[in-house]
Amino acid sequence: MPLALIALAVGAFGIGTTEFVIMGLLPEIAADYGVTIPTAGLLVTGYALGVVIGAPVLTVLGNKVSRKRMLMVLMGLFVLGNVVSALAPSFGVMLAGRVVASLAHGSFFGIGSVVAAGLVAPDKKAGAIATMFTGLTIANIVGVPLGTFIGQAVGWRTTFAVVAALGVVGLLGIARLVPAMPRPEGARLRGELTAFRNPQVLLAMAMTVLGFGGVFAAITYIAPMMTEVTGYSEGAVTWLLVLFGVGMFLGNLLGGRYADRALMPLLYATLGGLAVVLALFPVLAHDKILAAVAILLVGALGFATVPPLQKRVLDQAHGAPTLASAVNIGAFNLGNALAAWLGGLVIAAGFGYTSPNWVGAALAAAALGLAFWSAALERRTPAAPTADTADGDAAAVRTPVLH
Description:
Growth Hormone, Chain: A
Protein backbone atom coordinates (compact mmCIF):
# COMPACT_ATOMS: atom_id res chain seq x y z
CA MET A 1 0.00 0.00 0.00
CA PRO A 2 1.58 3.32 -1.01
CA LEU A 3 1.98 5.67 1.94
CA ALA A 4 0.37 8.40 -0.17
CA LEU A 5 -2.96 6.61 0.33
CA ILE A 6 -2.63 7.09 4.07
CA ALA A 7 -2.15 10.84 3.54
CA LEU A 8 -5.31 10.93 1.44
CA ALA A 9 -7.18 8.90 4.06
CA VAL A 10 -6.14 11.36 6.80
CA GLY A 11 -7.55 14.20 4.72
CA ALA A 12 -10.77 12.25 4.19
CA PHE A 13 -10.98 11.57 7.93
CA GLY A 14 -10.73 15.26 8.74
CA ILE A 15 -13.31 16.25 6.14
CA GLY A 16 -15.76 13.59 7.32
CA THR A 17 -15.32 14.64 10.92
CA THR A 18 -15.94 18.35 10.37
CA GLU A 19 -19.01 17.67 8.23
CA PHE A 20 -20.87 15.49 10.72
CA VAL A 21 -19.54 16.58 14.13
CA ILE A 22 -21.63 19.75 14.00
CA MET A 23 -24.79 17.71 14.65
CA GLY A 24 -23.66 16.66 18.11
CA LEU A 25 -22.55 20.18 19.03
CA LEU A 26 -25.54 22.26 17.91
CA PRO A 27 -26.90 22.88 21.45
CA GLU A 28 -23.50 24.08 22.73
CA ILE A 29 -22.87 26.33 19.73
CA ALA A 30 -26.40 27.76 19.87
CA ALA A 31 -26.05 28.55 23.58
CA ASP A 32 -22.62 30.13 23.13
CA TYR A 33 -23.80 32.49 20.40
CA GLY A 34 -27.26 33.06 21.89
CA VAL A 35 -29.15 31.76 18.85
CA THR A 36 -31.93 29.20 18.51
CA ILE A 37 -31.36 25.58 17.51
CA PRO A 38 -32.98 26.14 14.07
CA THR A 39 -30.65 29.10 13.50
CA ALA A 40 -27.65 27.00 14.54
CA GLY A 41 -28.85 24.45 11.97
CA LEU A 42 -27.76 26.94 9.31
CA LEU A 43 -24.22 25.77 10.03
CA VAL A 44 -25.25 22.45 8.46
CA THR A 45 -27.06 24.16 5.60
CA GLY A 46 -24.17 26.53 4.90
CA TYR A 47 -21.63 23.71 4.80
CA ALA A 48 -23.79 21.66 2.48
CA LEU A 49 -24.35 24.56 0.08
CA GLY A 50 -20.61 25.21 0.06
CA VAL A 51 -20.05 21.64 -1.14
CA VAL A 52 -22.73 22.09 -3.81
CA ILE A 53 -20.92 25.15 -5.17
CA GLY A 54 -17.35 24.07 -4.54
CA ALA A 55 -17.54 20.55 -6.00
CA PRO A 56 -18.12 21.48 -9.67
CA VAL A 57 -16.31 24.84 -9.63
CA LEU A 58 -13.09 23.61 -8.04
CA THR A 59 -13.17 20.38 -10.03
CA VAL A 60 -13.19 22.40 -13.26
CA LEU A 61 -10.46 24.75 -11.97
CA GLY A 62 -8.48 21.70 -10.87
CA ASN A 63 -8.04 20.69 -14.50
CA LYS A 64 -5.70 23.66 -14.96
CA VAL A 65 -3.09 22.61 -12.36
CA SER A 66 -1.41 19.39 -11.27
CA ARG A 67 -3.54 17.10 -9.16
CA LYS A 68 -1.08 17.08 -6.28
CA ARG A 69 -1.04 20.88 -6.13
CA MET A 70 -4.83 21.00 -6.30
CA LEU A 71 -5.13 18.54 -3.41
CA MET A 72 -2.79 20.72 -1.36
CA VAL A 73 -4.83 23.83 -2.16
CA LEU A 74 -8.02 22.03 -1.13
CA MET A 75 -6.55 20.90 2.18
CA GLY A 76 -5.34 24.46 2.75
CA LEU A 77 -8.90 25.72 2.31
CA PHE A 78 -10.11 23.05 4.70
CA VAL A 79 -7.60 24.04 7.39
CA LEU A 80 -8.38 27.75 6.97
CA GLY A 81 -12.12 27.18 7.32
CA ASN A 82 -11.76 25.16 10.50
CA VAL A 83 -9.37 27.68 12.06
CA VAL A 84 -11.91 30.43 11.35
CA SER A 85 -14.66 28.28 12.91
CA ALA A 86 -12.57 27.63 16.02
CA LEU A 87 -11.83 31.34 16.55
CA ALA A 88 -15.09 32.85 15.29
CA PRO A 89 -16.22 35.73 17.53
CA SER A 90 -19.76 35.73 16.12
CA PHE A 91 -22.22 33.31 14.57
CA GLY A 92 -21.84 34.96 11.16
CA VAL A 93 -18.08 34.42 11.18
CA MET A 94 -18.60 30.83 12.30
CA LEU A 95 -20.93 30.27 9.36
CA ALA A 96 -18.37 31.79 6.99
CA GLY A 97 -15.71 29.42 8.33
CA ARG A 98 -17.96 26.43 7.72
CA VAL A 99 -18.54 27.51 4.13
CA VAL A 100 -14.80 27.99 3.46
CA ALA A 101 -14.05 24.50 4.84
CA SER A 102 -16.84 22.97 2.77
CA LEU A 103 -15.47 24.25 -0.54
CA ALA A 104 -12.75 21.59 -0.42
CA HIS A 105 -15.10 18.66 0.23
CA GLY A 106 -16.39 17.52 -3.16
CA SER A 107 -13.29 18.19 -5.21
CA PHE A 108 -11.01 16.49 -2.69
CA PHE A 109 -12.88 13.22 -3.02
CA GLY A 110 -13.26 13.52 -6.79
CA ILE A 111 -9.62 14.39 -7.54
CA GLY A 112 -8.34 12.19 -4.71
CA SER A 113 -10.05 9.17 -6.25
CA VAL A 114 -8.20 9.68 -9.53
CA VAL A 115 -4.88 10.18 -7.72
CA ALA A 116 -5.38 7.09 -5.54
CA ALA A 117 -6.12 4.96 -8.59
CA GLY A 118 -2.99 6.22 -10.30
CA LEU A 119 -0.77 5.13 -7.42
CA VAL A 120 -1.29 1.38 -7.92
CA ALA A 121 -1.48 -1.28 -10.60
CA PRO A 122 -4.67 -1.35 -12.74
CA ASP A 123 -6.03 -4.43 -10.95
CA LYS A 124 -5.75 -2.70 -7.55
CA LYS A 125 -7.40 0.64 -8.33
CA ALA A 126 -10.65 -0.08 -6.52
CA GLY A 127 -8.82 -1.13 -3.37
CA ALA A 128 -6.68 2.00 -3.47
CA ILE A 129 -9.68 4.29 -3.76
CA ALA A 130 -11.50 2.36 -1.05
CA THR A 131 -8.48 2.89 1.23
CA MET A 132 -8.80 6.65 0.82
CA PHE A 133 -12.54 6.54 1.49
CA THR A 134 -11.92 4.47 4.61
CA GLY A 135 -10.91 7.75 6.22
CA LEU A 136 -14.43 9.09 5.70
CA THR A 137 -16.01 5.92 7.06
CA ILE A 138 -13.82 5.85 10.17
CA ALA A 139 -14.59 9.55 10.74
CA ASN A 140 -18.22 8.69 11.34
CA ILE A 141 -17.40 5.87 13.75
CA VAL A 142 -14.48 7.45 15.63
CA GLY A 143 -13.89 11.07 14.64
CA VAL A 144 -17.42 12.41 15.01
CA PRO A 145 -18.20 10.82 18.40
CA LEU A 146 -14.75 11.77 19.72
CA GLY A 147 -15.15 15.31 18.41
CA THR A 148 -18.57 15.54 20.07
CA PHE A 149 -17.12 14.29 23.37
CA ILE A 150 -14.27 16.82 23.21
CA GLY A 151 -16.69 19.61 22.34
CA GLN A 152 -19.01 18.81 25.24
CA ALA A 153 -16.19 18.26 27.75
CA VAL A 154 -13.72 21.01 26.82
CA GLY A 155 -15.59 23.28 24.42
CA TRP A 156 -16.71 23.07 20.82
CA ARG A 157 -13.94 25.44 19.67
CA THR A 158 -11.38 22.83 20.70
CA THR A 159 -13.06 20.31 18.42
CA PHE A 160 -12.60 22.51 15.37
CA ALA A 161 -9.02 23.31 16.38
CA VAL A 162 -8.26 19.58 16.52
CA VAL A 163 -9.89 19.06 13.12
CA ALA A 164 -7.78 21.89 11.68
CA ALA A 165 -4.67 20.14 13.05
CA LEU A 166 -5.76 16.95 11.30
CA GLY A 167 -6.02 18.95 8.10
CA VAL A 168 -2.44 20.17 8.56
CA VAL A 169 -1.28 16.56 8.97
CA GLY A 170 -3.13 15.61 5.79
CA LEU A 171 -1.66 18.58 3.91
CA LEU A 172 1.90 17.75 4.98
CA GLY A 173 1.34 14.11 4.13
CA ILE A 174 0.14 14.99 0.64
CA ALA A 175 3.07 17.36 0.13
CA ARG A 176 5.60 14.74 1.25
CA LEU A 177 4.12 11.44 0.07
CA VAL A 178 1.91 12.03 -2.98
CA PRO A 179 4.04 11.94 -6.14
CA ALA A 180 3.91 14.76 -8.65
CA MET A 181 1.28 14.17 -11.29
CA PRO A 182 0.77 16.25 -14.44
CA ARG A 183 -2.41 18.16 -14.90
CA PRO A 184 -5.05 16.20 -16.84
CA GLU A 185 -4.89 16.63 -20.58
CA GLY A 186 -7.83 16.75 -22.94
CA ALA A 187 -10.43 17.65 -20.32
CA ARG A 188 -13.02 19.99 -21.81
CA LEU A 189 -15.87 21.59 -19.91
CA ARG A 190 -18.21 21.38 -22.89
CA GLY A 191 -17.72 17.62 -23.10
CA GLU A 192 -18.36 17.15 -19.40
CA LEU A 193 -21.55 19.23 -19.57
CA THR A 194 -23.08 16.91 -22.19
CA ALA A 195 -23.81 14.40 -19.43
CA PHE A 196 -26.45 16.74 -18.01
CA ARG A 197 -28.53 16.47 -21.18
CA ASN A 198 -29.47 12.93 -20.14
CA PRO A 199 -32.74 12.95 -18.14
CA GLN A 200 -31.60 9.84 -16.28
CA VAL A 201 -28.58 11.70 -14.91
CA LEU A 202 -30.82 14.47 -13.64
CA LEU A 203 -33.31 11.98 -12.16
CA ALA A 204 -30.50 10.14 -10.35
CA MET A 205 -29.22 13.41 -8.90
CA ALA A 206 -32.74 14.36 -7.81
CA MET A 207 -33.00 10.99 -6.03
CA THR A 208 -29.69 11.76 -4.36
CA VAL A 209 -30.94 15.15 -3.13
CA LEU A 210 -34.23 13.81 -1.77
CA GLY A 211 -33.08 10.42 -0.52
CA PHE A 212 -30.09 11.58 1.47
CA GLY A 213 -31.98 14.68 2.51
CA GLY A 214 -34.25 12.32 4.43
CA VAL A 215 -31.29 11.16 6.49
CA PHE A 216 -30.15 14.68 7.35
CA ALA A 217 -33.64 15.79 8.34
CA ALA A 218 -33.41 13.38 11.25
CA ILE A 219 -29.70 13.55 12.06
CA THR A 220 -29.20 17.34 11.96
CA TYR A 221 -31.32 17.78 15.10
CA ILE A 222 -30.43 14.46 16.72
CA ALA A 223 -28.84 16.05 19.82
CA PRO A 224 -31.85 18.14 20.98
CA MET A 225 -34.28 15.35 19.99
CA MET A 226 -32.44 12.72 22.03
CA THR A 227 -31.90 14.93 25.08
CA GLU A 228 -35.21 16.81 25.16
CA VAL A 229 -37.60 14.10 23.93
CA THR A 230 -36.01 10.70 24.48
CA GLY A 231 -34.37 11.61 27.79
CA TYR A 232 -30.76 10.75 27.02
CA SER A 233 -28.01 12.75 28.71
CA GLU A 234 -25.79 15.04 26.66
CA GLY A 235 -22.93 12.59 27.09
CA ALA A 236 -25.01 9.79 25.55
CA VAL A 237 -25.23 11.72 22.28
CA THR A 238 -21.62 10.71 21.63
CA TRP A 239 -22.50 7.02 21.69
CA LEU A 240 -25.64 7.53 19.66
CA LEU A 241 -23.46 9.11 16.96
CA VAL A 242 -21.21 6.04 17.14
CA LEU A 243 -24.32 3.95 16.50
CA PHE A 244 -25.22 6.14 13.54
CA GLY A 245 -21.67 5.75 12.22
CA VAL A 246 -21.89 1.96 12.52
CA GLY A 247 -25.16 2.09 10.59
CA MET A 248 -23.48 4.16 7.88
CA PHE A 249 -20.63 1.66 7.64
CA LEU A 250 -22.96 -1.34 7.40
CA GLY A 251 -25.24 0.41 4.92
CA ASN A 252 -22.34 1.34 2.68
CA LEU A 253 -21.15 -2.28 2.69
CA LEU A 254 -24.66 -3.47 1.84
CA GLY A 255 -25.11 -0.96 -0.95
CA GLY A 256 -21.65 -1.59 -2.37
CA ARG A 257 -22.23 -5.35 -2.43
CA TYR A 258 -25.60 -5.34 -4.17
CA ALA A 259 -25.50 -2.21 -6.36
CA ASP A 260 -23.88 -4.15 -9.22
CA ARG A 261 -26.35 -7.04 -8.92
CA ALA A 262 -29.74 -5.37 -8.55
CA LEU A 263 -29.39 -1.60 -8.55
CA MET A 264 -33.00 -0.46 -8.89
CA PRO A 265 -34.51 -3.11 -6.57
CA LEU A 266 -31.92 -2.07 -3.99
CA LEU A 267 -33.02 1.54 -4.34
CA TYR A 268 -36.68 0.59 -3.96
CA ALA A 269 -35.96 -1.35 -0.77
CA THR A 270 -33.64 1.18 0.87
CA LEU A 271 -35.61 4.33 0.03
CA GLY A 272 -38.89 2.64 1.01
CA GLY A 273 -37.41 1.37 4.26
CA LEU A 274 -35.93 4.77 5.04
CA ALA A 275 -39.29 6.48 4.52
CA VAL A 276 -40.99 4.02 6.87
CA VAL A 277 -38.38 4.32 9.64
CA LEU A 278 -38.42 8.12 9.48
CA ALA A 279 -42.23 8.18 9.56
CA LEU A 280 -42.16 6.05 12.73
CA PHE A 281 -39.28 7.91 14.37
CA PRO A 282 -41.48 10.55 16.10
CA VAL A 283 -43.12 7.67 17.99
CA LEU A 284 -39.95 5.62 18.49
CA ALA A 285 -38.15 8.69 19.86
CA HIS A 286 -40.08 8.39 23.13
CA ASP A 287 -38.35 5.12 24.01
CA LYS A 288 -34.58 4.98 24.51
CA ILE A 289 -34.03 1.53 23.03
CA LEU A 290 -36.33 2.02 20.06
CA ALA A 291 -34.81 5.44 19.38
CA ALA A 292 -31.33 3.91 19.30
CA VAL A 293 -32.51 1.22 16.88
CA ALA A 294 -34.07 3.89 14.67
CA ILE A 295 -30.79 5.84 14.57
CA LEU A 296 -28.92 2.70 13.49
CA LEU A 297 -31.50 1.99 10.78
CA VAL A 298 -31.49 5.56 9.48
CA GLY A 299 -27.73 5.38 9.09
CA ALA A 300 -27.82 1.94 7.46
CA LEU A 301 -30.73 2.55 5.07
CA GLY A 302 -29.58 6.05 4.20
CA PHE A 303 -26.04 5.05 3.31
CA ALA A 304 -27.18 1.92 1.50
CA THR A 305 -28.60 4.31 -1.11
CA VAL A 306 -25.22 5.95 -1.72
CA PRO A 307 -23.53 3.21 -3.81
CA PRO A 308 -26.45 2.62 -6.19
CA LEU A 309 -27.11 6.34 -6.65
CA GLN A 310 -23.47 7.15 -7.33
CA LYS A 311 -23.20 4.21 -9.72
CA ARG A 312 -26.44 5.25 -11.42
CA VAL A 313 -25.00 8.69 -12.18
CA LEU A 314 -21.72 7.28 -13.48
CA ASP A 315 -23.48 4.70 -15.64
CA GLN A 316 -25.72 7.29 -17.22
CA ALA A 317 -23.01 9.95 -17.60
CA HIS A 318 -21.01 7.70 -19.93
CA GLY A 319 -18.01 9.36 -21.52
CA ALA A 320 -18.09 12.41 -19.20
CA PRO A 321 -18.19 11.10 -15.63
CA THR A 322 -15.79 13.41 -13.79
CA LEU A 323 -17.93 16.54 -13.46
CA ALA A 324 -21.13 14.52 -13.09
CA SER A 325 -19.57 12.57 -10.22
CA ALA A 326 -18.48 15.79 -8.48
CA VAL A 327 -21.90 17.36 -8.98
CA ASN A 328 -23.55 14.27 -7.51
CA ILE A 329 -21.39 14.67 -4.40
CA GLY A 330 -22.76 18.20 -4.31
CA ALA A 331 -26.26 16.76 -4.71
CA PHE A 332 -25.88 14.77 -1.49
CA ASN A 333 -25.04 17.98 0.28
CA LEU A 334 -27.83 19.91 -1.40
CA GLY A 335 -30.13 17.34 0.16
CA ASN A 336 -28.41 17.94 3.49
CA ALA A 337 -28.96 21.69 3.20
CA LEU A 338 -32.58 21.34 2.13
CA ALA A 339 -33.38 18.93 4.95
CA ALA A 340 -31.62 20.97 7.64
CA TRP A 341 -33.46 24.10 6.52
CA LEU A 342 -36.88 22.42 6.34
CA GLY A 343 -36.29 20.70 9.67
CA GLY A 344 -35.46 24.03 11.26
CA LEU A 345 -38.66 25.53 9.82
CA VAL A 346 -40.95 22.89 11.35
CA ILE A 347 -39.19 23.17 14.72
CA ALA A 348 -39.47 26.97 14.65
CA ALA A 349 -43.16 26.59 13.77
CA GLY A 350 -43.68 24.82 17.10
CA PHE A 351 -44.03 21.20 15.98
CA GLY A 352 -41.27 19.95 18.27
CA TYR A 353 -37.88 18.32 17.90
CA THR A 354 -39.30 15.12 16.42
CA SER A 355 -41.05 16.90 13.55
CA PRO A 356 -38.04 16.96 11.17
CA ASN A 357 -38.48 13.20 10.85
CA TRP A 358 -41.78 13.77 9.06
CA VAL A 359 -39.92 16.03 6.64
CA GLY A 360 -37.36 13.27 6.13
CA ALA A 361 -40.03 10.66 5.51
CA ALA A 362 -41.63 12.87 2.85
CA LEU A 363 -38.28 13.46 1.13
CA ALA A 364 -37.42 9.74 1.11
CA ALA A 365 -40.88 8.87 -0.24
CA ALA A 366 -40.44 11.45 -3.01
CA ALA A 367 -37.08 9.89 -3.91
CA LEU A 368 -38.74 6.48 -4.09
CA GLY A 369 -41.31 7.90 -6.50
CA LEU A 370 -38.53 9.25 -8.71
CA ALA A 371 -36.86 5.82 -8.67
CA PHE A 372 -40.00 4.20 -10.06
CA TRP A 373 -40.31 6.99 -12.64
CA SER A 374 -36.69 6.57 -13.70
CA ALA A 375 -37.11 2.81 -14.13
CA ALA A 376 -40.30 3.27 -16.16
CA LEU A 377 -38.60 5.84 -18.39
CA GLU A 378 -35.64 3.50 -18.92
CA ARG A 379 -37.90 0.68 -20.03
CA ARG A 380 -39.30 2.91 -22.76
CA THR A 381 -35.92 4.07 -24.12
CA PRO A 382 -32.94 2.22 -25.64
CA ALA A 383 -30.15 1.23 -23.27
CA ALA A 384 -27.19 3.60 -23.16
CA PRO A 385 -23.51 2.69 -22.75
CA THR A 386 -22.51 2.38 -19.12
CA ALA A 387 -19.54 3.61 -17.16
CA ASP A 388 -17.94 0.22 -17.74
CA THR A 389 -17.16 1.34 -21.29
CA ALA A 390 -16.02 4.83 -20.33
CA ASP A 391 -12.45 5.98 -19.93
CA GLY A 392 -9.99 5.09 -17.19
CA ASP A 393 -10.96 8.00 -14.97
CA ALA A 394 -14.55 6.75 -14.98
CA ALA A 395 -13.40 3.37 -13.76
CA ALA A 396 -11.29 5.07 -11.17
CA VAL A 397 -14.16 6.93 -9.55
CA ARG A 398 -16.78 4.23 -9.91
CA THR A 399 -16.28 1.88 -7.02
CA PRO A 400 -15.92 3.94 -3.81
CA VAL A 401 -19.18 5.58 -2.97
CA LEU A 402 -19.26 7.73 0.11
CA HIS A 403 -20.43 11.33 -0.19
